């Protein structure tokens, strides 16, 4: 007798998606039917541009719509929020020039941007992008909620930046099951775990960052031997070489104000990007700039050789990082068995050629370089959800972790490129007689002085018995979990007095701050929705008003006086609602104005349709119809 197995307790593990939160684009993937696949609703690529556009009436657009609005109004858009994750104002430098809003810091030292009086941290901006990715993924899954994810980060992201990524996901109501390095995820997508053994270099050149990782594979076990990279190097910089060429050659033909015009500069950047894309498939392409405002219609033929010459120094910078990674791993380029190319910028032929020459072997480019990271994250999500368990990832911490000692030096407890998860213990003692407490400053970096490293957090051990200096024995243990999150514990051996902390980065968000933001989003959900709805209705009313002003005169003589009066009355109310800038219009009034306008214009629409039909049938016999 056959039985139908039912999950009556609803204990089946929920799927864990893989999310690539990228600098330029973001997307989600899932493992099903034996393979990883990008989550894309019908008619959608699944890719979400990492762009956010803020309207003047509180409207916020994310993704493709934001990028389209940014062409006309670049002064309202933020791109590449990932560059600011886990950083303070002093860390951001020239990147701030790319953001059209004033930048500052909150009390925790987190950089934030003032958008019409409302401060946004990079975590909140990234949460908006993650919510959009979450929505797209949910649509592809038939409306099923996306609640758990493996999220990828650049291999060179430090603890602060990883914490910030986790905060962003939490704000988007996504449970982060694991944070893994992007190059490690890429190696999974290519199925390199099928190798019995070998050494792999993963070269990841995205829109705004570059990473390279050296991995070893032994019986399906991945171990990251070393990582290196540049968080300020990517496809945006390749585009900039063509932007600079255009602005230089235009010279005096371009007014000085155009060089400060954000909309014009955005148009130049997009034209340069298109030209770069064409040069990946053709030996020459046209860089074309059109600007009626500045009476400009400029064309310039760019050869691939010319572009490659300009891009060469940037490509060499990526190879410098490759040399550093090989040196850290104690290997030469000839020891690499496989090279994997990741990131949209690896489509540039010169990049592929130089990497092939450097490593002496043809790199893997079979998979879409824009999707490979998300696909690999989906594989890891499948493993964590209870799928196949013949894959093991051993990442490394990208920077050393230690403690500030007297005099401001750093005692490194966990060295750079140590395997993750891992732990290490170091011994310390008191500096002064009868000292009963010690303040610990946890730092991250490769410099010898704490002032030159990043402070991740501070905590204090008290309860040390009074004794001569140097007699106390304090063991300090550093423990990094699989996500790269650090916990530090200090214990005085004679009394057992102990203190510990999960390091909350100086440039991170506290649990209370995250909870406050979440609660604020819940508390303001209705008002936020209402504001968005009013803004949408105003846009719709504007479209309707334009249509009426364009076509009313054509049928005015055919309308009865009552219908004409209804249209004019409804139009006046629509104009009043649309013109309101003080927030006095609520959803009910805006919706009523829209509905009334639609009803009032129905007779006009009928007359216009009738006239179009008569014109279409004019001169035709009945049998022709």
Automatic annotation (TrEMBL):
<comment type="similarity">
    <text>Belongs to the heat shock protein 70 family.</text>
</comment>
<keyword id="KW-0143">Chaperone</keyword>
<protein>
    <submittedName>
        <fullName>Chaperone protein DnaK</fullName>
    </submittedName>
</protein>
<keyword id="KW-0067">ATP-binding</keyword>
<dbReference type="InterPro" id="IPR018181">
    <property type="entry name" value="Heat_shock_70_CS"/>
</dbReference>
<dbReference type="GO" id="GO:0140662">
    <property type="term" value="F:ATP-dependent protein folding chaperone"/>
</dbReference>
<keyword id="KW-0547">Nucleotide-binding</keyword>
<dbReference type="InterPro" id="IPR043129">
    <property type="entry name" value="ATPase_NBD"/>
</dbReference>
<dbReference type="InterPro" id="IPR029048">
    <property type="entry name" value="HSP70_C_sf"/>
</dbReference>
<dbReference type="GO" id="GO:0005524">
    <property type="term" value="F:ATP binding"/>
</dbReference>
<dbReference type="InterPro" id="IPR013126">
    <property type="entry name" value="Hsp_70_fam"/>
</dbReference>
<dbReference type="InterPro" id="IPR029047">
    <property type="entry name" value="HSP70_peptide-bd_sf"/>
</dbReference>
<dbReference type="Pfam" id="PF00012">
    <property type="entry name" value="HSP70"/>
</dbReference>
């Amino acid at each position: 007798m056959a039985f139908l197995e039912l999950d009556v307790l609803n204990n089946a593990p929920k799927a864990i998606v893989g999310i690539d939160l990228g600098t330029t684009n973001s997307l989600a993937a899932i493992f099903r039917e034996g393979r990883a696949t990008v989550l894309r609703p019908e008619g959608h690529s699944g890719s979400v541009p990492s762009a956010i556009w803020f309207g003047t009436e509180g409207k916020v657009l994310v993704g493709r719509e934001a990028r389209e609005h940014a062409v006309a109004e670049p002064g309202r858009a933020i791109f590449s929020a990932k560059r600011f994750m886990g950083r303070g104002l002093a860390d951001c430098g020239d990147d701030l020039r790319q953001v059209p809003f004033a930048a500052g810091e909150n009390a925790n030292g987190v950089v934030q941007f003032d958008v019409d009086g409302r401060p946004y941290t990079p975590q909140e901006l990234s949460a908006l992008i993650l919510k959009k990715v979450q929505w797209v993924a949910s649509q592809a899954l038939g409306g099923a909620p996306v609640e758990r994810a493996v999220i990828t980060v650049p291999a060179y992201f430090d603890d602060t930046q990883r914490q910030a990524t986790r905060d962003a996901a939490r704000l988007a109501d996504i449970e982060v099951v694991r944070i893994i390095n992007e190059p490690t995820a890429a190696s999974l997508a290519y199925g390199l775990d099928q190798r019995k053994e070998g050494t792999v270099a993963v070269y990841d050149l995205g829109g705004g960052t570059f990473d390279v990782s050296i991995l070893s594979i032994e019986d399906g076990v991945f171990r990251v031997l070393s990582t290196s990279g540049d968080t300020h190097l990517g496809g945006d910089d390749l585009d900039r070489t063509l932007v600079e060429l255009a602005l230089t050659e235009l010279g005096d033909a371009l007014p000085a104000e155009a060089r400060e015009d954000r909309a014009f500069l955005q148009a130049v950047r997009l034209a340069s990007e298109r030209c770069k894309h064409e040069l990946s498939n053709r030996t020459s392409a046209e860089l074309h700039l059109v600007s009626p405002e500045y009476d400009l219609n400029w064309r310039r033929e760019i050869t691939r050789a010319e572009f490659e010459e300009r891009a060469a120094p940037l490509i060499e910078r990526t190879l410098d990082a490759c040399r550093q990674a090989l040196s850290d791993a104690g290997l030469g380029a000839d020891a690499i068995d496989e090279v994997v190319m990741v990131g949209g910028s690896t489509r540039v032929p010169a990049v592929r050629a130089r990497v092939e020459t450097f490593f002496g072997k043809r790199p893997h480019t079979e998979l879409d370089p824009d999707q490979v990271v998300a696909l690999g994250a989906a594989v890891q999500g499948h493993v964590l959800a209870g799928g196949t368990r013949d894959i093991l990832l051993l990442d490394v911490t990208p920077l050393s972790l230690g403690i500030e000692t007297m005099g401001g030096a750093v005692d490194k407890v966990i060295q750079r490129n140590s395997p993750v998860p891992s732990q290490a213990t170091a011994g310390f003692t008191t500096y002064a007689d009868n000292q009963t407490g010690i303040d610990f400053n946890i730092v991250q970096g490769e410099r010898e002085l704490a002032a030159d490293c990043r402070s991740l957090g501070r905590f204090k051990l008290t309860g040390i018995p009074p004794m001569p200096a140097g007699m106390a024995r304090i063991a300090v243990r550093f423990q990094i979990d699989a996500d790269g999150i650090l916990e530090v514990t200090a214990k005085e051996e004679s009394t057992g007095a102990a203190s510990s902390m999960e390091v909350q980065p100086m440039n991170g968000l506290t649990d209370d701050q995250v909870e406050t933001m979440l609660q604020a989003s819940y508390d303001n959900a209705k008002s936020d929705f209402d504001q968005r709805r009013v803004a949408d209705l105003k846009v719709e009313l504007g479209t309707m008003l334009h249509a009426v002003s364009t076509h009313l005169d054509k049928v005015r003589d055919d309308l009865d006086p009552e219908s004409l009066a209804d249209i004019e009355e409804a139009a006046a109310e629509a104009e009043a609602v649309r013109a309101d800038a003080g927030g006095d219009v609520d959803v009910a009034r805006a919706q009523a104005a829209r509905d009334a306008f639609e009803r009032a214009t129905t007779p006009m629409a009928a007359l216009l349709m009738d006239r179009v039909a008569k014109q279409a049938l004019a001169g035709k016999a009945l049998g022709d119809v």
